[in-house]
């Protein structure tokens, strides 16, 4: 038998002890993972890149100068670049995980490729301008033709006016044919999608890789040999059209695919027919991309030489008639000038190339001005026209709602003598 002692009773004078509480131990909160930066550069990235470049250059110098019997500038640059990439990946891997390392390395590779392409473009343009610097300062180079100038004549005699005019005429003919046909075919492939859309798409893709000499031979065989027409700027325009058309169709088709489907669905839900949806919704939305497609086709066609040589012939005199007589273009003039061993003719060739590049730049700017605005961006003229159309629509809606307020005076007096409920005369 267990005897328990009774606890002494607490009196009212004794203070009440505070209850003993034990707080549970809390584990340290986990720090949420920080999002990885996908853009921008930090100080550590710059230092790692500079260190990797210096290390790659040093190792390449050792390999090509001391250790290995290697030689060659190209091999030295490739070796230094490859070693730099490896060292940069190792340095980035000390502070980041695998995805970050791959991201930084691919960023360096893409920036390097862009830099190489930019340097190549600058070298090509700079070399062309430098070699043509002797011919460009002369005003007669832009105002005369080569009818009275020969290979031994100085640069103060003769010019390329006939080539400039011929190029403008040929590319204008090609654009007049290519732009409506190319855009219509792209709309057919993307919006209509008829029975022969796959066949047409296959033909367009096959024509994209068509050699330019084949296009010139086709026009030469059909237009000149079979139909009996003479060599002219019109025939050259047809040959350039064959080269430009698949480029414009492919590029325009890709651009039209990017138009959101909900825009066309909304237009058709409002009752607009298909042609009105394409004309007022699809084409304005893709206007900037379509301008780019036309620029790509123009750049392809304006630099063709062999089709022009087969279909337009060659002349040293100015000919502004595209229907009769041979006509020369800027690329064909460059090809003819550069074959001569005389320094003056070679200078004319490089000067003509500079003019050709400037002409392409001018056409690019014009196309950007005409079609460079994005969807919803209107010029001042288009904004005023839209405002006038909106005012006419508002008046028409108001007239339907309150027809009596918009009646003529004689119509209003006649309607006042008529019972509005029955239409009978009072």
Automatic annotation (TrEMBL):
Topology relative to the membrane: Multi-pass membrane protein
Cite the record's Basic and acidic residues compositional bias ranges: 390-401
GO BP, sorted A to Z: phosphate ion transmembrane transport
ABC transmembrane type-1 domain residues = 164-367
List the protein's name. Phosphate transport system permease protein PstA
Q: What does this protein do?
A: Part of the binding-protein-dependent transport system for phosphate; probably responsible for the translocation of the substrate across the membrane.
Region annotated Disordered sits at 1-39, 374-426
Organism whose genome encodes this protein: Planotetraspora thailandica
Transmembrane feature ranges: 46-68, 74-94, 106-130, 163-189, 209-228, 234-256, 277-299, 345-371
Q: Which GO terms describe its molecular function?
A: phosphate transmembrane transporter activity
Which compartments is it annotated to reside in? Cell membrane
* Keyword terms of this UniProt record: Cell membrane, Membrane, Phosphate transport, Transmembrane, Transmembrane helix, Transport
Question: GO terms for CC?
Answer: plasma membrane
Which PANTHER family does the protein's record reference?
PHOSPHATE TRANSPORT SYSTEM PERMEASE PROTEIN PSTA
């Amino acid at each position: 038998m267990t005897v328990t002692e009774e606890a002494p009773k607490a009196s009212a004078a004794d203070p009440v002890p505070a209850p003993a509480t034990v707080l549970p131990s809390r584990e340290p909160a986990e720090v949420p993972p920080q999002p990885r930066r996908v853009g921008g550069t930090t100080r550590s990235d710059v230092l790692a890149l500079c260190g990797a470049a210096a290390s790659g250059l040093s190792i390449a110098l050792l390999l090509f100068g001391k250790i290995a019997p290697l030689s060659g500038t190209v091999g030295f640059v490739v070796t230094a670049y490859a070693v730099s990439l490896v060292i940069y990946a190792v340095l980035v891997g000390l502070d980041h995980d695998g995805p970050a390392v791959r991201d930084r390395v691919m960023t360096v590779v893409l920036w390097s490729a862009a830099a190489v392409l930019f340097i190549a473009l600058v070298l090509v343009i700079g070399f062309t301008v430098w070699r043509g610097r002797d011919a460009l300062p002369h005003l007669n180079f832009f105002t005369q033709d080569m009818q009275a100038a020969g290979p031994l004549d100085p640069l103060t005699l003769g010019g390329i006016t006939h080539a400039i005019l011929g190029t403008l005429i040929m590319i204008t003919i090609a654009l007049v044919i290519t732009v409506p046909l190319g855009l219509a075919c792209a709309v057919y492939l993307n919006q209509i999608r008829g029975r022969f859309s796959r066949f047409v798409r296959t033909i367009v893709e096959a024509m994209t890789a068509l050699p330019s000499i084949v296009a010139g031979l086709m026009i030469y065989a059909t237009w000149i040999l079979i139909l009996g027409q003479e060599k002219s700027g019109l025939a050259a325009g047809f040959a350039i059209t064959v080269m430009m058309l698949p480029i414009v169709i492919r590029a325009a088709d890709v651009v039209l695919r990017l138009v959101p489907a909900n825009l066309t669905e909304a237009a058709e839900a409002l009752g607009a027919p298909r042609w009105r949806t394409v004309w007022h919704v699809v084409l304005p939305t893709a206007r900037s991309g379509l301008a780019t497609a036309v620029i790509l086709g123009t750049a392809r066609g304006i630099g063709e030489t062999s089709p022009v040589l087969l279909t337009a012939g060659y002349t040293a005199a100015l000919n502004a008639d595209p229907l009769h007589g041979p006509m020369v273009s800027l690329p064909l003039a460059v090809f003819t000038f550069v074959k001569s061993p005389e320094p003056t003719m070679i200078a004319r060739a490089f000067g003509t190339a500079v003019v050709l590049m400037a002409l392409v730049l001018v056409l690019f700017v014009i196309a950007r001005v005409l079609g460079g605005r994005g969807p919803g961006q209107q010029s001042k003229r288009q904004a005023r026209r839209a405002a006038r159309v909106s005012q006419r629509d508002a008046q028409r809606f108001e007239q339907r709602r309150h027809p009596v307020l918009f009646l003529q005076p004689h119509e209003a007096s006649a309607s006042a003598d008529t019972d509005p409920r029955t239409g009978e005369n009072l």
